[in-house]
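Narrative of activities, Objective 1.

The group set out to show that a structural description can be obtained from nothing but a protein's sequence at a throughput compatible with the screening campaign. Below is one input-output pair from the validation batch, recorded exactly as produced.
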Amino acid sequence: MTSTLFSKCTQPTRHSGFSLLELLVVLLIVAALMVLAGPSFTTSLQNSRLQSAVGALGTDMAFARSEATTRREPVTLCASTDGNSCAGSAWESGWVVFVDDGAGGGTSGNGSRDGSETLLKVAEASSAGVTIRSHNFAYGNWVMLQGSGRLGFAEGGTFVFCDNRGIENAMAVNLNGVGHVRLAEDNDGDNVPEDDLGAPTKCT
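Output recorded for this entry:
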């Protein structure tokens, strides 16, 4: 009996797990999958960044129009680099929404936040690599919604969202004269969405 117990205790222990060769094979398989999935993942990430920027600006346009009609005062959305005042035309740097009523000695409806005009919303900069440009508006760096909800000084315009893939992978939104936003479409099949006037959009 004693001999049997001793022999069981002295048997070599088997260790489970990968051998070095098996581990190398697994690593090679994982590396190959990453190479194959890399471009697809990058494309998905770029598309997601564009869609996020489109959603943010579209939402804030609708917000500006709603505030204008509720307050019966002009509300302006403009490009901003400091989250406080209007500056530049690179909308990817961020934008602000404010009541453009000339309060506190400012000028009503001038597209500039002056005096003590109420700041309604501040949008942060878009994801790295995304550019946003406006076209066909009377002024490139600001859009004003009147108390009626209509655009001030313009019958419409377009915002174009691009990344380093260029215009064929861009997205765009058109804003019409009554202040409604819709996603731009590619109606002629050239992979480039059309602006509010029916012309091909551009990233610059």
